[in-house]
């Protein structure tokens, strides 16, 4: 009887499985053993008749191999650690590049001559490297494979506002610049310009250096670039984002409910990452618009390492475009760079030098299959030099003004995958910021002002996957921040230099439960800060909860407590020529308190048939603010006191997608009040209150052509009017009404943008873009204050306006 028929009968009778290779049993025939024999007797009989060896493993598996090759066979079983079941069709990769696979029982065998060290792999499992410690052994190896689990963030809604913008389960907005479509007025995925399209995010003066999230000031937002805290966020003193829009891979924006791993902010978090989520091929690009030119290159040094560089520089050294002129007029109006006291503008064409640049470097290296090291470096700089001359009362006067703003940063990160369930991340970072103003006058006076920040620290984060639904993260963070403020004046002589340092430690615990079947998402964590200088503990709990009533209807609850030890203040409105007049300082837990915030929001969203309805109600209170940090230009300009602001409101978005057309309408309501209990007017509207904001956009995208038209309408920000009835015209003194007793006029703007992309046969891509801000050339007032002018000995109303009609063109080549 054929040997294979004999062992098949034995398998059925004794419920065992035979493992063998065809070469060992091919063509073999013999008289079968008696059915009355026991299993061991049958195996002994077959061994005698065939000269094969039979290895019985637990009366369940029986391995068959030739006797003369006993010492040369390596065999084994592959099982899954999850359910202990055999893994069929697992690949056994040998050093001589041959490969064998496991059978339905997870069994494999190969000759010792092929390899003693080999790799076991299968889709969905972590590859293992195996060394047969004792190849002479007749015992088969027992190999356990760990499932390879990849946690994918569940996207709650795709294409919010534009393609490439989505909202995650944790309530954060995520921007993918490389997938970004188009927004009105934008032809590049500028992170800080794009986030202003999100309901609840605004800028009262059109500046990316003055972004207000739910009534907060710009310095209350945490801006991170690859883990580095950035203290300068804009070029051109706020009109352009300091972060190269062609570099970032992911931008995460949290208005509320941020992770406990984010500290040092009482408002939003903007985390920018330029690290790709998957391996990418070599790529190069260069582009130019009417403000700057840039280059980008990413080169794979090997299969496990790459280098990435980018650089961007203004083109104002070579040409003054219409875009540049509009930007310049917007930034420098009503500053000491322009001689506004007698309404005379100085001719700057031959007397000014203005420029900016930024550059980045990334080096990434994988070490083995578990470790990765990433180095990130960034530098940002703005430089303005103006030689100013004018004739006043037949006397020639001249001034030489220098203003520099720069931010350097570096981050070294190490990540290790201990196994498919546990990872560790460690990063060491430094950020150095400096603002320098130097002014020399015709009277021989020299004024030097300097504000510098040095921030460094270490972050440790451990991620643990407990089950497919539950994860737990913990970590530790150390942060040291040192801030120096210097003032040096000659004629008369004055010198002051103040440096303060603050060190904090933070312990972070965070757990997440995500059940996609029951549509429940719950994340809770806490951050426990310890401030060395004040010997003070501050606990900051965070919560994110989401429940899906159905696939279309979702409820979301977000809450957080946060604190902040550093802030920006304004000593004098004319500091640093009145352009970038804010300076960073450190809290002293007294006159400059630690800022603390608490926030709660409830969101309801409905998505069906390409419709999106989203409404979010929120409450936010920030305590520990100072009047110096709020930019007052009324009776509170020189008042030093502390208080809080309280804001509540609603944010709504309606969106519809129809084939290639996307349109949306958003509305935001904010009620925002200050509370200064030690002031004669304890409650009045916040300087950054924009009670009503409405935006609309229509976007068309088909193939490589994109076009967008949109409008934005806001109620005017608060202002304080003088009490004219109490002013003596012969000896005017400013007497104000109640702070922020009235409002500016309505702000309204229509914007347009369009891009077209095409590709040649050799794979080179070209992209052409055009945008027009304020198409209707509306003169929008964005600030207004009063002062006494010495020329006419009268009260003067000073107004600041937004950008006039501003065109821009861009061209980019990628390959």
Task: Give a structural overview.
It is a single chain. With 815 residues, the chain is mainly beta. It is built from five helices and 50 strands. The strands form ten sheets. It has a 22-stranded antiparallel barrel. It is elongated. It starts with a helix and ends with a strand.
Set down the secondary structure blueprint.
Layout: H1 3-14, E1 17-19, H2 22-25, H3 39-50, E2 52-57, E3 61-66, E4 73-80, E5 91-93, E6 99-101, E7 107-111, E8 117-121, E9 128-131, E10 141-145, E11 155-157, E12 165-168, E13 173-175, H4 191-194, E14 201-203, E15 211-213, E16 222-225, E17 228-229, E18 234-235, E19 240-241, E20 250-254, E21 269-273, E22 283-289, E23 292-302, E24 305-314, H5 322-332, E25 352-367, E26 371-392, E27 395-417, E28 422-441, E29 446-465, E30 470-489, E31 494-515, E32 520-531, E33 536-548, E34 553-564, E35 566-569, E36 583-586, E37 595-608, E38 611-626, E39 642-658, E40 661-675, E41 683-685, E42 692-702, E43 705-714, E44 718-719, E45 742-743, E46 747-759, E47 765-773, E48 781-789, E49 794-801, E50 806-814
What kind of oligomer do you see?
single chain
Q: Rg to the nearest angstrom? A: 34 Å
Largest sheet: 22 strands, antiparallel, barrel
Number of helices: 5
- Overall spatial form: elongated
Strand content: over 45%
Instruction: Show unreliable segments.
Output: 339-350
Intertermini distance? 68 Å
Let me know the average pLDDT.
89
Structural class: mainly beta
């Amino acid at each position: 009887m054929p040997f294979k028929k004999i062992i098949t009968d034995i398998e059925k009778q004794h419920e065992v499985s035979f493992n063998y290779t065809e070469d060992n049993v091919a063509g073999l025939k013999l008289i079968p053993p008696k059915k009355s024999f026991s299993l061991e007797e049958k195996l002994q009989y077959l061994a005698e008749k065939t000269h094969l060896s039979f290895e019985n493993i637990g009366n369940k598996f029986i391995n068959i191999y030739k006797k003369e090759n006993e010492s040369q066979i390596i065999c084994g079983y592959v099982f899954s650690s999850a359910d202990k079941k055999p893994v069929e069709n697992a690949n056994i990769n040998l050093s001589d590049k041959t490969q064998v696979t496991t059978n339905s029982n997870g069994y494999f065998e190969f000759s010792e001559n092929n390899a003693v060290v080999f790799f076991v792999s299968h889709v969905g499992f972590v590859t293992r490297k195996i060394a047969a410690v004792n190849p002479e052994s007749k015992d088969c190896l027992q190999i356990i494979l760990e499932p390879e689990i990849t946690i994918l963030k569940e996207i709650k809604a795709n294409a919010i506002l534009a393609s490439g913008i989505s909202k995650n389960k944790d309530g954060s907005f995520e921007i993918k610049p490389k997938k970004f479509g188009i927004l009105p007025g934008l032809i590049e995925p500028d992170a800080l310009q794009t986030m202003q399209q999100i309901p609840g995010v605004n800028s009262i003066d059109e500046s990316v250096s003055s972004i207000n999230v739910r009534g907060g000031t710009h310095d209350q937002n945490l801006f991170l670039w690859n883990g580095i805290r950035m203290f300068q966020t804009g070029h051109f003193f706020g009109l352009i984002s300091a972060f190269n829009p062609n570099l970032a891979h992911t931008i995460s924006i949290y208005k509320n409910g941020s992770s406990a791993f984010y500290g040092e902010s009482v408002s939003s978090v903007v985390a920018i990452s330029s690290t790709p989520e998957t391996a990418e091929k070599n790529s190069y690009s260069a582009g130019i618009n009417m403000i700057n030119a840039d280059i980008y290159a990413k080169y794979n040094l090997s299969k496990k390492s790459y280098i990435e560089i980018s650089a961007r520089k203004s083109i104002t050294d070579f040409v003054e475009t219409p875009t540049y002129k509009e930007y310049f007029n917007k930034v420098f109006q009503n500053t000491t760079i322009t001689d506004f006291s007698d309404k005379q503008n100085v001719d700057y064409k031959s007397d000014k030098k203005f420029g900016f640049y930024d550059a980045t470097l990334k080096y990434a290296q994988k070490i083995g299959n578990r470790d990765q090291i990433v180095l990130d470096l960034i530098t940002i700089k703005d430089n303005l030099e103006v030689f100013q001359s004018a004739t006043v009362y037949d006397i020639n006067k001249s001034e030489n003004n220098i203003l520099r703003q720069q931010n350097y940063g570096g981050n070294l990160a190490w990540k290790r995958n201990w196994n498919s369930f546990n990872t560790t991340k460690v990063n060491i970072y430094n950020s150095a910021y400096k603002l320098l103003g130097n002014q020399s006058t015709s009277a021989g006076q020299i004024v030097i002002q300097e504000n510098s920040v040095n921030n460094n620290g270490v972050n440790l984060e451990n991620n643990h996957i407990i089950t497919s639904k539950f994860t737990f993260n913990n970590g530790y963070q150390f942060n040291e921040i040192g801030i120096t403020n210097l003032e040096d004046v000659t004629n008369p002589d004055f010198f002051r230099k103040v440096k303060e340092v603050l060190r904090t430690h933070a312990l972070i615990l965070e757990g997440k439960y995500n059940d996609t079947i029951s549509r429940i998402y719950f994340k809770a964590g806490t951050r426990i800060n310890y401030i060395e200088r004040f010997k003070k503990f501050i606990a900051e709990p965070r919560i994110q909860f989401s429940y899906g009533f159905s696939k279309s209807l979702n409820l979301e609850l977000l809450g957080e407590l946060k604190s902040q030890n550093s802030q920006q203040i304004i000593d004098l409105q004319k500091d640093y020529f009145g352009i970038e007049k804010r300076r960073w300082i450190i809290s002293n837990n007294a006159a400059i308190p630690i800022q603390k915030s608490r926030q709660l929001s409830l969101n309801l969203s409905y998505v069906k048939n390409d419709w999106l309805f989203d409404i979010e109600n929120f409450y936010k209170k920030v305590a520990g603010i100072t009047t110096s940090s709020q930019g007052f230009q009324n009776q509170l300009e020189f008042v030093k006191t502390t208080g809080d602001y309280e804001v509540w409101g609603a944010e709504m978005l309606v969106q519809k997608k129809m084939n290639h057309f996307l349109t949306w309408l958003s509305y935001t309501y904010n009620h925002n009040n200050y509370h200064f209990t030690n002031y004669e007017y304890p409650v009045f509207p916040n300087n950054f209150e924009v009670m009503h904001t409405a935006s609309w956009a229509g976007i068309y995208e088909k193939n490589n052509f994109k076009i967008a038209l949109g409008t934005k309408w806001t109620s005017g920000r608060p202002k304080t009017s003088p009490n004219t009835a109490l002013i003596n015209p012969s000896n005017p003194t400013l007497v104000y009404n109640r702070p922020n007793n009235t409002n500016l006029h309505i702000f309204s703007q229509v914007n347009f943008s369009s891009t077209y992309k095409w590709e040649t046969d050799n794979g080179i891509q070209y992209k052409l873009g055009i945008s027009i801000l304020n198409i209707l050339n509306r003169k929008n007032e964005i600030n207004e204050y009063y002062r006494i002018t010495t020329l006419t000995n009268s009260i003067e109303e000073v107004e600041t306006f937004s950008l006039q009609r501003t065109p821009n063109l861009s061209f980019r080549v990628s390959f």
